[in-house]
Design goal:
With 105 residues, the protein is mostly helical. It has one domain. The chain has five helices and no strands.
């Protein structure tokens, strides 16, 4: 158990370093574009969620969140299938690397 905890903590500390290395290889306009796209997406999701839950009187925020998660997974799978994006396939090793993160969410 202790070894698993150390392995998880080690991967949490190393995983962001790998992401930072990838970000350092990006050009300035790519970084800015990514940040603006993320900000715009966040504002749109909040606006749509508020509209659906209040104006449209949608009964369940959980169903709304589930729909958003499923649509995200489907969009990512389609983009990966057509070769527009790349990311590693699902594996238990990856799940163990990021496991403690869901506990904080």
């Amino acid at each position: 158990m202790y070894r698993l905890l150390i392995k998880c903590l080690n991967s949490i500390l190393i995983f962001p370093i790998k992401i930072i290395r990838n970000i350092k290889n990006m050009h300035g306009y790519q970084k800015l574009g990514s940040a603006l796209f993320y900000a715009g997406s966040s504002v749109m999701i909040m606006t749509i969620n508020k509209s659906v839950l209040t104006t449209e009187q949608f009964p369940s925020a959980y169903i709304l969140a589930l729909g958003q998660v499923l649509s995200t997974v489907i969009i990512l799978a389609v983009l990966k299938f057509f070769g527009k994006i790349t990311f590693p396939n699902f594996s238990i090793e990856t799940m163990l690397k990021i496991f403690p993160l869901p506990l904080f969410y």
